[in-house]
Amino acid sequence: MRWYLTGIVVSGFGTTAMWLVSGIWVKSLTGSDSLAALAAFALWAPVLLGPLLGTLADRVRRRPLLVVLNVAMALLLPVLLWVESADRVWLLFAVLVLYGAQGAVHEAAEQALVATTLDEGRLGTLNGLRMTANESMKLIAPLVAAGLFARYGGGPVALLDAASFALAAVLFALMPVREERPARSARPHWWRETAEGVRLLRASPVLRPLVATGGFTMLLAGVNGAAIYAVVDSGLGRSPAYAGVLYAVQGAGSVLAGLLTGPLLRRVPERVLAATGLAVFAVAVGVRALPYGVTALVASAVIGLGMPWVLVATMTAVQREAPAEAVGRVAATAHTLVFAPNALAIAFGAGLVAVVDVRILLPVLAVAGTAWAAGLAVRGGRRGGDPGGGRVDGLAVRGGQGAGSMEGGA
């Protein structure tokens, strides 16, 4: 856990810095807001291919795959030193697409490695600490990245990110993990294996509602994020820069959420934590409509607290319930279904904010979120469980605190 979390901190620092600077870099070279927005899309686009990319994580040993992925990015990022004018922005976009694809495979390999090497009782704790590590870097890395870019341009930020990938590769290589080589079918077929991961997720009565809840939460989060500047401007009467304060407070809430998640998942099933997190998040979104500075700050902190509970609960359930030989594919499929709605909702929300007052929009989001959370809790409470684990469409799923405890406990 120590080696893994240290690798997450190091790579998370560089990734956060690069993601922030990419849009600023494009804007500074081209002067185009649209192209700057496309930088974020280039990073997100490969998530849509998550189920296909995640298949790779089930075909090879996961720790060596993580090392190779990090080394590859460490070698690729220095290419961005040649991006010095608008006519070379295409190179930045090409690297960002590869960056996003690497991230999709890396995420699947991480989840599969953790699921197959760590005992189930510690999964929630590790996932919570992973969330804390990532969110902590989001509080620090933007300041470093913005300072570097303002003084020296994008090249040094790319080199900083490359160095973080190289160090992460070393940390993952030193991680004391023993893995069995994955069994290979006599006639491997990439598309068939990918479809199997999708089918396993659809067939699971435990994972299906949790992944749907994660996707719905990120849908609401996308609209809420698109409304942030309207809240700051028309609601609070502040300058757009104040949004940075709200995001920082939200990040602090997410750091706290990660620390609390492990102890909570040892006491309640994933479904309960997801329903609670969505309800807390939704209420805070509604409170954000109030035109008071104090309530806006409190709401931001509570949003940061509730949303990670949904995501970590879903991630932990996937690691516990998916068959060991298919964790990468199922995790990548779940990741796509959870996070793709966020990207779509940001674009949709940007148009919605232009025609709907945030004092109406945000309470509507709050009602929708609390209603979904109540439905998730009620459905969980009505089902019986099998404490010893079960089978999904003929394939074994791990028991323990898996299907039985979640179905019966919620």
Automatic annotation (TrEMBL):
Keywords: Cell membrane, Membrane, Transmembrane, Transmembrane helix. The chain crosses the membrane at residues 7-28, 34-53, 65-83, 158-177, 209-232, 244-265, 272-290, 296-318, 330-354, 360-378. Residues 387-410 are annotated as: Disordered. One of its GO terms (molecular function) is transmembrane transporter activity. GO terms for cellular component: plasma membrane. Gene3D superfamilies: MFS general substrate transporter like domains. It is a multi-pass membrane protein. It comes from the Bacteria. Residues 1-181 form the Major facilitator superfamily (MFS) profile domain. It is found in: Cell membrane. This is MFS transporter.
